[in-house]
Amino acid sequence: MQKSTTIKDRIAEGYDGLSDRLRAAADFVADNPVDVATRSLRSISTASGLAPATFSRLARALGFDDYEAMRELSRSAVGRRYVSFSQRAQQLQSEAVAAEPLLQRQAAACIANIDSMSQTIDPARLERAVEALHAARRVVLFGACGSTGLIDYMAYMGRYFSPDWQVAGRGGAALGATMAELSERDAVLIITKPPFARRAILSAEMAAAQGAAVIVLSDTHTCPALKYATAGFILPSDSPQFFSSYAATLVLVETIIGMLVARAGPDAMNRIAEVEARNHRLDEYWRV
């Protein structure tokens, strides 16, 4: 098993092959990294209701030499448990009289998410993902629910430098038709966060079955699409408001686009210039 940067990455890679009991241990480790990193195995066993031997077996199943090696990697992890939007809205209302204004708390959370992402993301994995997109005959993007807008933004940027980017299931094209057309020459990028859109998970499964490169952006190791991913990224999305933050995801999306343009060569520059020129001719921009 390839060594990943964070404990959540390691868990995500091996999660599908774990037994129910080991999954319960993995969930506890991912959601309680501070406790795992600072408390004894006996204390962790008591808090989780699982035997100490279960965590030792989990460590070996994830490719660690022993529990202490897994515990060490937990020091850099940030766990996140899904809470429904309505529950988070209720919590937000209860904190309405908090001393610190929401703007400051939201900004601090976003900054922390971006900083955590930049410090823990695996550069080699990011390079592989970008290369898969660069080499693809066609890049298909999919996101539903809260991820829809970010997918549209990514497609908008992608179309500036390449004619071979499309959003699946939009513009009169059925999602199933797009999935049926995929091959090993294509790449699919999916953004999905809890509560996961069913179509996003099935799209990842279908794309993988067709041989396409599958890149998944989520915020939890339990994302069902990760088991179909060629490259998966778990991005922090903590927020004091009722909805998950997409700040770190946005930064990664913009980084991926920048990396693609940087390696695309003169063809990309020429296309961007041509798109800009035609936008001017179409009066898309405000005249100054």
From TrEMBL:
Species of provenance: Sediminimonas qiaohouensis
SUPFAM superfamilies named among the record's database cross-references: Homeodomain-like (SSF46689), SIS domain (SSF53697)
Coiled-coil residue windows: none
MF terms in GO: carbohydrate derivative binding; DNA binding; DNA-binding transcription factor activity
Record-linked PANTHER family: GLUCOKINASE, RPIR-FAMILY TRANSCRIPTIONAL REGULATOR
Keyword Transmembrane: yes
PROSITE patterns: HTH_RPIR
Residue intervals passing through the bilayer: 243-262
Family matches, as InterPro entries: Homeodomain-like_sf (IPR009057), HTH_RpiR (IPR000281), RpiR-like (IPR047640), SIS_dom (IPR001347), SIS_dom_sf (IPR046348), WH-like_DNA-bd_sf (IPR036388)
Name of this chain's protein: MurR/RpiR family transcriptional regulator
Keyword vocabulary terms for this entry: Membrane, Transmembrane, Transmembrane helix
Pfam families reported in the protein's UniProt record: SIS
Domain HTH rpiR-type: 5-81
Gene Ontology terms: biological process: carbohydrate derivative metabolic process
